[in-house]
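User: Just a sanity check before I run the rest of the batch. Below are the structure tokens for the first item. I only need the designed sequence back.
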């Protein structure tokens, strides 16, 4: 009975966050197109991602302590409120004709600060609501929401831009934040019991460190974290920073082509999320992480690099994205099972801080590497054309395609390297689960 009530509460929260994800993705798509039209540089889009992670790096440990100390529902409410107000500020600036690129950087930085509280609070709250045997399915639902928003948002935003302009899309985004807040107001999330690991940390500084200490003392979790730091770096270097600019460059700023490819990424993720939600994932979750990530890089990044048509990019998007819910779902399920619930805010924030640092570095490197080095080198007569021109072509966007060759190679290698570590390879069996047992588990 308690377990079914928890699942029902999780489903209500999930619906509100799903609505908010759609609104946020629509706004980001519309503003991304607007920003690229202002400058025509990949660096502009890469910096949007970079600034999104600045405060996540700085605030991560603090957010973790507060998530474990305070009401997790309240943390999610305040984070959604802050993000909604930030969107409202962008709406007013755009409506007044005063919106500038640097405003977007500030908005992304502050929104990232709110997400540094919201994401670990959401993950830790899920542990208190969902029986352990359903962790992977719950992760599949979260991936399904994220990827469904990627399907809906690009075409919805592209269509609405013809009717209501960017300010209308941002108004819809504000409404979806209100929906998310309403779902949080009508539910209750139980507090976790106090664990031995949590009692060890006394004082603010020790609690800030406790998430990192917990991870570093467990080789399996430490190895898993290192793998995901590498995965996030290469994902930021290519997918999150360069992909939109590459497609726009290779199609003459065709917004429909970009929307099609981004929606294909979402469709692949939806299919993967549905499979994960129904199936629950492989018995050994580590295979979903190591082998699944390698396949995603090889099928996705490599085809994005060599493909020079929307049709090929759609195939690449589907091949890459279908594995992502399995990768993130398996990773999240392992961390939830191995970390005491009252310590999860700090552990998840420590993990997120290091991954955010890797992503910020990826964003920071991607733009200049594309605009200043590889794009000039892949123009007709460029220095790298004899070596790579036959593989990725030449002209606008070809230098960015080279980045996908790099990420396909090293992303696959770093993923498969997880099998070389016995502690990581056997983390599910050698590291004990936490002792929380929800009714019905």
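Assistant: Here's the designed sequence for the first item:
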């Amino acid at each position: 009975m308690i377990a079914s009530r928890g699942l029902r509460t999780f489903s209500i929260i999930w619906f509100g966050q799903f609505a908010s994800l759609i609104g946020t993705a629509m706004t980001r798509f519309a503003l991304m197109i607007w920003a690229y039209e202002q400058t025509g540089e990949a660096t502009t889009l890469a910096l949007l991602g970079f600034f999104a992670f600045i405060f996540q790096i700085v605030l991560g440990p603090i957010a973790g302590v507060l998530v474990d100390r305070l009401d997790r529902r309240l943390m999610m409410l305040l984070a959604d409120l802050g993000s909604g107000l930030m969107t409202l500020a962008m709406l007013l600036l755009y409506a007044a004709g005063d919106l500038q690129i640097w405003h977007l950087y500030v908005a992304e930085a502050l929104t990232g600060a709110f997400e540094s509280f919201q994401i670990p609070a959401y993950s830790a709250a899920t542990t208190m609501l969902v029986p352990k045997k359903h962790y992977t399915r719950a992760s599949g639902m979260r991936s399904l929401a994220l990827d469904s928003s990627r399907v809906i948002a690009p075409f919805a935003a592209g269509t609405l831009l013809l009717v209501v302009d960017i300010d209308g899309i941002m108004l819809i985004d504000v409404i979806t934040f209100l929906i998310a807040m309403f779902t949080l107001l009508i539910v209750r999330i139980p507090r976790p019991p106090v664990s031995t690991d949590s009692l060890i940390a006394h004082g603010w500084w020790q609690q800030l460190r406790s998430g990192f200490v917990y991870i570093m003392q467990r080789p399996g979790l430490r190895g898993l974290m290192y793998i995901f730091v590498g995965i996030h770096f290469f994902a930021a270097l290519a997918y999150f920073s360069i992909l939109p600019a590459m497609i726009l460059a290779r199609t003459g700023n065709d917004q429909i082509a970009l929307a099609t490819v981004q929606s294909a990424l979402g469709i692949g993720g939806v299919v993967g999320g549905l499979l994960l939600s129904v199936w629950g994932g492989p018995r050994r979750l580590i295979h979903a992480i190591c082998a699944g990530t390698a396949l995603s890089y090889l099928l996705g990044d490599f085809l994005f690099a060599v493909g020079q048509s929307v049709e090929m990019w759609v195939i690449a998007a589907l091949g890459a994205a279908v594995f992502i819910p399995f990768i993130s779902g398996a990773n999240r399920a392992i961390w939830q099972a191995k970390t005491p619930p009252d310590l999860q805010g700090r552990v998840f924030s420590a993990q997120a801080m290091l991954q955010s640092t890797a992503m910020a570095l990826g964003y920071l490197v991607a733009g200049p590497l594309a605009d200043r080095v590889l794009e000039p080198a892949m123009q007709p007569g460029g220095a790298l054309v004899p070596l790579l021109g036959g593989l990725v072509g030449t002209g606008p966007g070809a230098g960015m395609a080279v980045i996908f060759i790099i990420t396909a190679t090293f992303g696959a290698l770093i993923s498969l390297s997880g099998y070389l570590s016995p502690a990581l390879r056997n983390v599910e069996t050698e590291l004990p689960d936490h002792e929380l047992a929800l009714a019905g588990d």
